[in-house]
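Sequence in, structure out. Go.
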Amino acid sequence: MVAAQLRTDFTGLWKVNLEKSVLRGPAPKEILMKIEHREPMLNQQILLIDAGGTRRRQAFAFGIGGEWANPVGGSTARTRAQWEGTELVIESWMKTPERELHFKDHWSLSRDGQTLAMAHRDDDLAGQITILERALGASATGFDE
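Output:
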């Protein structure tokens, strides 16, 4: 019971700091992320606005422990999540016509709870580090549009 109480809670509205992040692929204009984390369940909504202003939304839902499936484009991502110390490691596999993609995302929260780092260390996005900061006020409206 004590270990569960020490787990990080990622709940909140987050905005990617593009200047502090190292992203693979074309640079977006903005990324907002809404996370609802109620151990052991985690729901993640992503709003990506590309350089041309096109909005794309993606949602993921999974539990910590076990394996979950989420639709991504015309495919399905299989996802497993587990705690490694204070980091949440989220591992996903997705088949494309060319090959199977593997993602292993390491989530950690700063001591003050205002910065969320998502690091890909040893997967198909190795070297990508997404730095998110808590979004306040008007930043939240992106999910309502």
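Check: Residues 53 and 72 are 21 Å apart (CA to CA). The beta strands are 12-16, 30-38, 41-49, 55-63, 67-72, 75-84, 87-95, 100-109, 115-120, 129-134.
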